[in-house]
Structures are given as C-alpha cells and as structure tokens.
Amino acid sequence: MRSLLLDLDGTLATTANVHKEAWEIALKRLGIRVEVNLDLLMGRKTLDIARVLGGDRYLELYNLKNEIYDELVGTKAFPLPCARELVKDARELGYSVAVVTSSLRRSAMRSLQAIGIEPDILVAGDDVERGKPDPLPVLTALRRLGSKPEKSIGVGDTVYDFQAFKGAGVAYVFIIKGELNLDNSSLVDQGGILVESPCDVDRFIRSVVFQ
C-alpha cells in the first residue's frame, strides 16, 4: 500500500505562525524573556519547546500556550494552496493518507477541522514518546497504515520533518517553503526535494514510480 505522510502546521495549514504567535503571547503574559529564534523551534513537540523556553516554569508556559492557541486557531487557520486537493487526489490514486504532527492531538484536531481535511489517521505529538526529528512518529503512522516506507512520500516544512521522514526510510521527502523564515537549501544534498507548496507535490504523485 502506498502512503502519503503529511506534516500539518506550515505544510497543510497556515498554523505554524499561529503556534508561534501563541508562544509569543504566552511568554509575554508570563514575563518570560528569551533570546531564541522561535522559527527554529517550530516543528518540535509542544512540551519540548516549553522546556526550552520556560525553564522551571515550563508547565505553566505549556498550559497557557495551549489555551491561547485554542483561542486563535478558529479564525487564523487556513489551508495552504492545493492542500485539500493533494489529499483528495492522493486518495483517488490509491494512497492512504496520514497526518504526522508534533502538535498536541487536541490542537491538531482543531487545525484539521478548521481547514476541512480529514486524514485516514493522525499521529500527534502526545501519541508518541519521542517526537520529530526522531522517526518514531513516522514509523508509528506507517505501522498503523500497514504501509512500507519505500512505498511512501513524506511532506513537511522543517528540518525536523526531513530528519524524521529520512530516518524512517521514506522514499521521497518533500520540504515546502511554508510560512517560517527557514533556509532549508542544505537538505537538497541530503536527498530532500524543495518545493514551493503542496501544489508541486500534487503534480508529483500523479507520475511517481516506486522501486
């Protein structure tokens, strides 16, 4: 069985920046000052980010950030170009579709509902012991789909997505430009395929031949 493995935030939905905004608001409300580029943390598990930013107040920060995200996502989450079409076309071509995200399940469900996408399965950050860049979330999705990595396509927008997909042995790994200010050009030398949007992946799946 062929499978399409999709990151969510910044890959299917305009929610990478919503998460970033929620972190910024939470940090400000708690009076926590950090000298960290938040763009470089997006794509990791929520609890892991909270530990980096919050120090001994990480649980307080974690809970507040999640509350703020829930308030923001309903009005700020939109599908990226061709996101819905990619999922629809993949299914018509016989792919099973999984969303593999570092976000909490509750946040991911809200985001997916907001953009009108329903995958076959969802693997969220709180479903697994280790999040991206560890391959465990991807391997979990493949196992649940009954699919093999060599018959799979991975799509994300960060180096953490790339490392998780590659670590799981996924055949083709696309990294889209997304919303974040990231330079992913070095991933090309490691086998990544850089594209502008899900539209490029939608064209690719129509002609791909797996070995």
From TrEMBL:
- GO MF annotation, one: sugar-phosphatase activity
Q: Is DNA-binding one of the keywords UniProt gives this record?
A: no
**Any idea which UniProt keywords this protein has?**
Hydrolase
Cross-referenced Pfam families: HAD_2
The family database entries (InterPro entries) matched by this protein are listed as:
HAD-like_sf (IPR036412), HAD-like_SPP (IPR051806), HAD-SF_hydro_IA (IPR006439), HAD_2 (IPR041492), HAD_sf (IPR023214), PGP-like_dom2 (IPR023198)
Which PANTHER family is this protein grouped with? FRUCTOSE-1-PHOSPHATE PHOSPHATASE (PTHR43481), GLYCEROL-1-PHOSPHATE PHOSPHOHYDROLASE 1-RELATED (PTHR43481:SF4)
Q: Which family does it belong to?
A: Belongs to the HAD-like hydrolase superfamily.
Q: What is this protein called?
A: HAD-IA family hydrolase
